Prior knowledge:
This protein is mainly β and 674 residues long. Helix content is 6%, strand content 56%. β19 (326-343) and β20 (349-365) form a beta hairpin. Residues 1-38 have low confidence and may be disordered.
Amino acid sequence: MSPSLVSRAALTAALGWSAMAGVAAAQSAPQDPAAVLDDVIVTGAPYGISARATTIATTVIDEEALATAPAASLGDLVAGLPGMRSTDFAPGASRPVIRGLSGPRVQVLTNGIGLIDASSVSPDHQVATDPAEANRIEIVRGPATLAYGGTAIGGVVNVLDNRIPTEMPDGVDGMVSAQASSVDDGWSTSARATFGLGPIAISVDGVKKEADDYDIPSPAISQRLADAEGIARGPGGTQPNSFSELESWGVGASWIGSRGFLGASYKDLSSTYGTVAEPDVFIQLEQTREDVRGELRFDGGPFQKLTGSYGHADYTHTEFEGPGNPGTIFESDGQEARADLVQRTRNGWNGAVGVQALSRTFEAIGAEAFVPTSDIEEAGIYTVQRLDRAGWGLEGGLRYDRRSVTATPLSGGSEIAREFDNWSGSVAAFIKPTANLFLGLSLAHNERAPSEVELFADGLHVATGVYERGDATLDNETVTTVEGTLHYTADRFRGDLHVYASTYDGFIDEQDTGAVFVDGGESFPIFQFVQTGAEFRGFEAEGEYDLWASGDRALSLEGAVDFVDAETDQGPAARIPPYSATARLNWTSTPFDASLEVRHVGEQDELAAYELGTDGYTMVNLSGVWRPFADKGVTLFAEGHNLTDEEAREHVSFLKDIAPLPGRNLRVGVSYRF
């Protein structure tokens, strides 16, 4: 059977199942986004698992934290969490970076289904979802993501919303939020509500936000670039062409019965933002999306429930070279479906089996199209299992994927079709010597098929400032990862530690060929995708200590440190983040919370041959939350970010030497949860 037929067969099967079932949205207790407490997550395992009782490295941002979070893109929102950074390609387009990995190695999902956008093709492409749409965001760091594809060797960011309700609300349930920021004269509003009409639950939501060019504490050009190129740094003041606008709305409905639910939703997202990389270029993004999701619970037998989901998205990304002058257009149209059978828990044994399929067409049109039109078909099957005894346990999983990519090279010639068979698996063991201590060790082997960019790119990629050449003969990228996990809880202390080492065979990287491409009198280096060996090593550590407590009042101290080191056969890997260390003093009480944070990011001098280094920086942030009324539904919040107006540059960003992070910012807002 051909890959296309495999994908269609799996897609048809999953769609048939989703007619009566779907993936349940996550349910959670309130939680601080900067620390993982005893919470149940579904992204690492469809049957749900406690974050403090698994070897999977996770972080959760819940509804309470999202209600007062900055009006930022997804990448900028999660940047600063343990092991997390942002591509920081201006406020409009920032994608998550996990343990130094980005692009196709990090999957961004909405309710367990891919976004079906083009955000992994180029760093100036926006992620087609906004955090204000979510009521929960779950992050899995590392390759233990078999339920969502072996290609996610860096990790998964799963944006969970309630657009398709999973349970009947008690009356009307929802939230309204508004905020404004000084650094970019920005403002944002969002609202959502869920209500019942008989057995039908209906959900509506919307987000709108605008921001001007943001203020910067230094000249846009870094001193390192000025010295290397012999150019002036310029006046500074504001970051040119860094404005952004976004509008999103959605509606959904579910029939909810005693044994499950079945629902559908529609979403429309439009966005306009400056690219920063080019002073006169801005991007308009449009995406419409339809989803179907459901769940069927069984009264008996080996399986607890059947869940299924289906999503279709039509995405258009247009780059304008001045008002009314459209240039390159990127389009992505596709559908994805999955179905999961979750086993009934028996004697501490949990598990799930599932299938997943994707069919997508990607097309680039225009003078700056550097990737040809590509048809992608994927089909996969997986299982994850867990045995949990009183003092020990085992975790494991296995996944098989088939992926096909077909394209006609930009340089001409006949159509090229590549097929890839990927096997990924993991096994882990853990012990619990005491009720307060969890120790785990995991081994994972993952295979990733090369992306359409890595295979077929052949053109000037203005966003990265290089001419990129793919290699249609690339093989699978494979990685073996060993990770140690520690969770510890004492009377006043809670801590987590993850230490990992990954060895890559056939790591897909870009190499400077030494040749140049001349366009309009300007020269650009030519980079070639190649395969090489690589080693990634690092750790993430978090801790929280209760300094004092009396009644509803408490004072605590939090800390977090992360570090990653990466070497390829060509030398240090490019755009690897330096270490970071964060300390936070928290005051909590019934009416008022406050937090003082100091975050230090180190200098990066472990560089690829074509990179410039990045200076270290320290940021001081102060935030407060006030609940003035007895019902606690109304929350007033304020934040002072980068209070010392520090010059800071994100090393993983392609724009780090022409665009520093925003300067001092005062953000105020109000939210009402009902």
